[in-house]
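Hey there, shall we discuss this one?
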Amino acid sequence: MNPSTLNIKAIVTDIEGTTSSIDFVHKELFPYASRELPAFVRKHQQEAAVASQLEAVRQLIDNPAADVEQLIETLLQWIRDDNKATPLKALQGLVWAHGYESGAFTGHVYDDAVSNLKKWAAQGIDLYVYSSGSVAAQKLLFGYSDAGDLNPLFKGYFDTRIGNKREPQAYKTIVTQLDISAQEILFLSDVVEELDAAASVGMQTIQLVREQGMTTGAHTIVHDFNEISI
């Protein structure tokens, strides 16, 4: 599939369902965070990196007096609800760091994604990641991937600090930060609403449909990265 005849200067890719298995996230990472997060928060609650995120949770639930146990229960409920709250993602990233570094798991990346990301980088195309997971968590997944350290392939990373992935403003921010024409940026994702938002600001889009029964929209569809020709 050719995204367009326009020259692609940058590719921005989603992770979950795009470069990496949804099952890895939901059956490996999330359960690990659920198991390890309570003890981690209790142990490190006074450290600046954790304390700042706990304060952000208090603000989101509008309860400045919430104690650490209330915050832990809120975080665990957010995990169960697949809530994309930024402080949760940041804390999950800190917990996952221990898992990666201890060898409890490696980051799943599809073989077709690995080979094509390497090819595009070699072609001089700038590669970026935009995921609801924190930048720290993104770097861990690619840094400790099944295929080794893939972080050198990427020029930068974006997370929910720039906005909701289903809102056009986030993609406007990406275009501004990359400082190139939106039409020269290709966004890859498995989620129609994210692709719609990216397309609305002029980005080119391709939907990854790796599983049967997925919702599709008015975007070029491929089943893996090998079908993308740039």
